[in-house]
Amino acid sequence: MPFLKKLEEQYKNRNIAFVGISIDAEKSYEKWRSFIKDKTPAGIQILADNDWNSAFIKDYSVNSIPRFILINP
């Protein structure tokens, strides 16, 4: 995470966004929210709506984490 924060700072004010997508199961949502609040990770943090069965996860063939994906505008 420290490297990701540095990278985000390096690309600040450019046409790029860093997005973290949590694939936690519903039972872990509160744990995830606490982590986000306490650790304030870099980028935009969102929660997949259906863990490993979420549309984004399937559409981009995410089968392990962490996964880094570049998507153009």
UniProtKB/TrEMBL annotation:
Residue ranges annotated for the Thioredoxin-like fold domain, each copy included: 1-73
Record's keyword terms, sorted: Cytochrome c-type biogenesis, Disulfide bond, Redox-active center
Compartments in which it is found: Cell envelope
Keyword Repeat: no
Main location: other
Cited InterPro entries: Thioredoxin-like_fold, Thioredoxin-like_sf, Thioredoxin_ResA/DsbE_sf
A Pfam family matched in the record: Thioredoxin_8
Designated name of the protein: Alkyl hydroperoxide reductase subunit AhpC
